[in-house]
Amino acid sequence: MKILNARNLSLEEVQRLFGFQKQYNDSFSNYLSLEPLTEAEQQELKQIQHDFDRYLTAGKVSEGQVKFLAVAPLLRLAGFYRYPIEIVLEENITDIEVEDEDIKIKGKFDILAISKAKHIKPQTYFWVLLIESKNSQIDISTGFPQLLTYAFKNLDNQKSVWGLTTNGRSYQLVYIEQGNPPIYYLLPELNLMERERSSQLLQVLKAICQL
Questions:
Q1: C-alpha 57 chain-centroid distance
Q2: Cβ distance 173 to 164 under 8 Å?
Q3: Cβ proximity of 166 and 155 under 8 Å
């Protein structure tokens, strides 16, 4: 059996192996109910922007720094640190065996938010948001193959899952849906360093957290 690491797969390979089809959706409101931010949330968001910008100005921001300086504070502000959501970090995925091909895929996801209030079956929780982060100089699309591979495994358990790839500055949300073929919808790209799109980013994360 051929063993592949999800980190080394190309998007073309993922689409071939799992049959994913790409589509675009230009509105988050088709999936989520976005609420206005409070003044306190806007002020905290500005602080996250300020902190991250200081590192950007100094040069490349590593993947670890992206998680610590941008992703983690945004998740906290959006409510992901509160029950019933639980954050899981850098867990190995269950090996994925590809039907009709002698291939097994291994990998480790960056960040996964699950809902402990929603049991799909015993010891299996509902996946709320799957996140792949990269360093600040890498295009966020490089995270798609890993994101889709990990999500595909869990589409056996639930009809859809949200995914996010980010380099700290840019944020690409993806709605991944079970089907024949499975489909992933690319939503408008958001940006932490731009006022309107950063506000929408926090609104979207809050709405996903509350699903």
A1: 25
A2: yes
A3: no
